[in-house]
Amino acid sequence: MENKERLIEGVDLDGNKVEVLLRQPTAKDYRDSQIEYNKAFTAALKSKAPLRQKLVSYMRDNEVWDDEKQEQHDLLVAEISSYEDKLKGGGIKLSEAKEIALLLREKREDFRELLSEKNALDQNSAEGQADNARFSELIRLCMLDPKSKKPCFMDQKAYDSQAEQPWVVKAASELAGMIYGLDPDYDKNLEENKFLKEFNFVNEELDFINEEGHTVDSEGRLINEEGRYIAYRTEKAKEEKDESKVYFVNRDGEEVICKTNEKGDEEWVKISLAERKPFLDDSGKPIGKASEKPAKAAKKTKRSTKKTEETA
Predict the structure, then answer these.
(1) Which of 26, 33, 51, 263 has the fewest CB atoms within 10 Å, measured from its CB?
(2) Distance (Å, whole) CA 121 – CA 61
(3) Residue 210: phi, psi to the nearest 5?
(4) How many angstroms separate the Cα of 307 from the Cα of each of 60, 188, 293, 301, 310?
(5) Which residues contact 95 (CB under 8 A, 6 or more apart)?
(6) pLDDT tens-digit readout, 142-179
């Protein structure tokens, strides 16, 4: 029998550890959450929120979605399906299959971006607002204090005030999986990621890796956990993954350092340009800044003018 309770560990905005107990919603929880749905739906209609069935017309009237975007949508769906079939079928060079997997990742991201504005509008429809209210109430009812087994939040106002806490976000995501049967390994089970993992192009976190197991970008350049380009001082350090011998580089492999500019902003510059050397005169001696000379000349002119006036 499936466990109807699950202990979740998370952190708050200050990094403090927080534990919360999640339980499967009961029939009463669903009835109570439906009340919140009805209230939110009525309020949304009063505020003139569009119904879902009228959303397409609304988007077209406001030029959010048009024939061109629909064609782009249909083309991406067809391309994604075609690339998935090629990876499933095999029979092509591994290098070609890798290119297809990378392209499939890009196409899927384009598809998500295309739908993002449309999905955002759906959230603002009357039904979308009501759905959110119902789910929020389910979260509130099923997110319990591990010791007292009582809801962490006594009402929606209390929940809303803490909704952005990392531990609340994590618990809400876990509960969504429990309620709707969402696959926690959805990304890992995408055809392109299964292929990349099978042939060791990515690790368990789906980050690209090279043959030595170093984390790299899609073009094979070494990167750290923050995604910044790096290099090792020696081949031995690289082989041993000695982080004390790591330095930062740009996309071309040139060493860079972080420097604060005149405006107080940090910027990454090539180490060879970290400090500008003085320019030289014709005899090879360093010269000062050009801005210093006019200032001295101006002072002489002022004194000369004053002397002329006294003489007059």
Answers:
(1) 263
(2) 13
(3) -95, -175
(4) 78, 84, 22, 10, 5
(5) none
(6) 999 999 999 999 999 999 999 999 999 999 988 888 88
Q: How far apart are CA 266 and CA 176, in angstroms?
A: 40
Q: Are 209 and 216 in contact (CB under 8 A)?
A: yes
Strands 256-260 and 266-270: antiparallel
Q: At 220, give phi and psi (nearest 5°).
A: 90, 5
Separation of alpha carbons 199 and 70, rounded Å: 35
For the entire predicted model, the pTM comes to: 0.69
CA distance 22 to 151: 10
- Residue 5 falls in which region: left (phi positive, over 0), alpha (psi -120 to 50) or beta: beta
Alpha helices in the chain (DSSP H): 27-46, 55-61, 67-89, 94-123, 126-142, 156-162, 166-180, 191-198, 235-240, 292-311
Residue type, position 24, single letter: Q
